Amino acid sequence: MSWKDFPKVELHMHLEGAAPPAFVRGLAQEKNIDLTGVFDERGNYTFRDFVHFLQVYEAATQVLKTPEDYGRLTLAVLEQCAENGVIYAESFLSPDFCGGRDVTAWKEYLHAMQEAADQAEAQMGITLRGIVTCIRHFGPEKARETALCAAETAGDWITGFGMGGDEGMGRQGDFAWAFDCAREAGLRLTTHAGEFGGPESVRQAIEDLKVERIGHGVRAIEDPALVDILAEREIVLEVCPGSNVVLGLYPRFAAHPIAKLREAGVKVTVSTDDPPFFNTTMTREYEELERAFGWGAEDFAELNRIAIEAAFCDEGTRKRIKQRLEQA
Ligand SMILES: [Zn+2]
After folding, report:
1. Which of 106, 124, 225, 276 lies 20 to 30 Å (CA to CA) from residue 82?
2. Of the candidates 151, 243, 150, 228, which has an alpha carbon nearest to the alpha carbon of residue 192?
3. Distance from the CA of 1 to the center of ligand 1, in angstroms?
4. How far is the CA of 327 from the centre of ligand 1 (A)?
5. What's the rounded Cα separation, in Å, for the pair 64 and 16?
6. CA distance 134 to 151
7. Alpha carbon of 251 to ligand 1 centroid (Å)
8. Range with the lowest mean pLDDT among 37-51, 180-194, 225-239?
């Protein structure tokens, strides 16, 4: 069977990282922007390793300049998600790319993205919520400005705050001010950890930033005591197996620790991260997990229940999405 129409909840996706290559090429053409080195000869994104991936990612993002571009991007991304059965998604949004962390400019970008999301909801039945995300390798000072943008726009639609970027830069605790600011504004918290950083980066995320979800977190598997802490405290992992395989953390899906983490009682969910960069979709993630671990409809339904319980949305939205999952 194909998993394409199986209803899905996705918690970890970067909006620019989900940009379909054809969409980015089209915008580059309209604006006469040179994207040499971004695509391979077949038109897919190309990169050597994680640091190069971040460079290509930021190069591709250069074509996205105006709020209107971001509105079009949001619609193009949600079309792809809806085609793969996603009924609720959360996306990381970056004021760094949307107006250079200026609050007034950020509000204009946000307005365009929200309008596009409303249109997608009406036309395709997919619900989106935004998580404002600071970029770790831009440093703690810029993260503060990003947090202020998040705090200014916290509400029903911007519901979370997070951090992505190069885990090699600094420590989680260097960003505590930004996370405290976001928490005080009522935002729910997640951060990337335990992807390229080891288990200690996951401990730091929990202790120094007090997040309730972790982006990736899979390298917690290297520290059994930490696995127990994740299970006991019900910290949810936003696991992106295809991303981890392409970036070389694990040689193939069957070697990925998602099944072991789940067996140890950790709350795991499945997402795509930056799907066209990693040649994946939610459908493909399910297919690969079925092939690697024999997971079926009951397993995936459980992962989706965990995901919607951990979603950073209001209770009314959660109830509505849960009903749709149960009906399926
Ligand atoms: Zn990510």
Report:
1. 106
2. 243
3. 29
4. 30
5. 9
6. 13
7. 19
8. 37-51
Q: How far is the CA of 201 from the centre of ligand 1 (A)?
A: 15
pLDDT of 224 higher than 90 = yes
Q: How far is the CA of 214 from the centre of ligand 1 (A)?
A: 10
Alpha helices in the chain (DSSP H): 21-31, 50-61, 67-83, 103-124, 140-152, 176-184, 199-208, 224-232, 241-246, 258-263, 282-293, 297-310, 315-327
> Given phi > 0 = left and psi -120 to 50 = alpha, else beta, which region is 25?
alpha
pTM listed for this prediction? 0.96
Residue 110 has pLDDT above 80, yes or no: yes
Contact 18, 274 (CB under 8 A): yes
Torsion angle, alpha carbons of 23, 26, 27, 30, to 10: -160
Q: Are 21 and 45 contacting, i.e. CB atoms less than 8 angstroms apart?
A: yes
| Gap between the Cα atoms of 106 and 146, Å rounded | 10
Active site residues: 195
User: Tens digits of per-residue pLDDT, 184-196?
Assistant: 999 999 999 999 9
Indicate if the pLDDT at residue 1 is higher than 80.
no
Question: What are the tokens at 20?
Answer: 């379909």
Domains of the chain: 8-327 (3.20.20.140)
Query: Which pair of tokens denotes residue 89?
Result: 């998604």
